[in-house]
Design goal:
It is a single chain. The chain is mostly beta strands. It has strands spanning about 5, 10-15, 20-25, 35-40, 45-50, 55-60, 65-70, 75-80, 90-95, 110-114. The strands form 2 sheets. It has a 6-stranded mixed beta sheet, with no helix packed on it. Strands 1-3-8-7 form a 4-stranded antiparallel beta sheet, with no helix packed on it. Strand 7 (about 65-70) and strand 8 form a beta hairpin. The chain is globular, with a radius of gyration of 13 Å. The mean pLDDT is about 95.
């Protein structure tokens, strides 16, 4: 069974950058559609970005132009490069397949200070 481990979060000032990683314990080569999600305190988990068919990417409007999703199948890892971070990006970030059939990982906390 595939398991996911997210990492790379931290505390950063507004305008800063972070690169999140999502490492899968098994092969994700055959998983066409992967995505990043986030959950802010007191809010429901929301979709942030996804990548499918290798290169087709989609983004939440509020992160377009600032976040970039990518994947390295050889390393079984999905990345989320986050630039020009804003306080409203503060959340726990998770990755999963689409649909979300893989058990959720523990996520990685991103905190952006103003």
């Amino acid at each position: 069974q595939v398991q996911l481990v997210e990492s790379g979060g931290g505390l950063v000032q507004a305008g800063g950058s972070l690169r999140l990683s999502c490492a899968a314990s098994g092969s994700i080569f055959s998983i066409n559609h992967m995505a990043w999600y986030r959950q802010a305190p007191g809010k429901q988990r929301e979709w942030v970005a996804s990548i499918r068919s290798g290169t087709i990417t989609n983004y939440l409007d509020s992160v377009k132009g600032r976040f970039t999703i990518s994947r390295d199948n050889a390393k079984n890892t999905v990345y989320l490069q986050m630039n020009n971070l804003k306080p409203e990006d503060t959340a726990v970030y998770y990755c999963n397949a689409v649909p979300n059939w893989i058990p959720w990982g523990q996520g990685t906390q991103v905190t952006v200070s103003s």
